[in-house]
Design brief:
Elements: H1 6-11, E1 15-22, H2 27-39, E2 42-48, H3 57-63, H4 66-69, E3 72-75, H5 78-87, E4 90-95, E5 102-103, E6 114-120, H6 128-133, E7 136-139, H7 151-168
Parallel strand pairs: 1-2, 1-6, 2-3, 4-6, 4-7, 5-7
Helix pairs in contact: 2-3, 2-7
Amino acid sequence: MNRISAEEFKQAEKLPLVVVLDEVRSLHNVGSVFRSSDAFRVEGICLCGITATPPQPEIHKTALGAEDTVDWTYYKDTREAVRHLHEAGYTVLAIEQCQGSTLLQDMELDKGRKYAVVLGNEVKGVKQEVVDMCDGCIEIPQFGTKHSLNVSVTAGIIVWEFARRLLID
């Protein structure tokens, strides 16, 4: 099935994308983000604030070991993570519905850049002070009666779109 080992994963070229979880409270969501990040060889994950860190049985239940393959860092404050990413040359984008956001299909990416995406708390989204620090906001268009998606579903859509555009296209 063309699966690589954990050791091969660590050595493989990564998608130039870091996923930042801003106060995500569900350990199952955290595990799911690890699993999607492994699937597309994301460079790393920043776990911020109340977001749980491995090892945790509830994370492992959905991550299925991806918490051991995908590099992660913990930050007490999401703003600290964003500052660090900016200093390291990343373009940081909040995934949020806000005034002036760019629809996902209209997002322009440069294959020579490194990106980070910030996904927020299941109820409150990305904190406003974090949104204000970002280089822009990306919004997933939605056409039903609900205008929100589960954070792990959002992560899967966003990570796939970055992989499609930066690695496949």
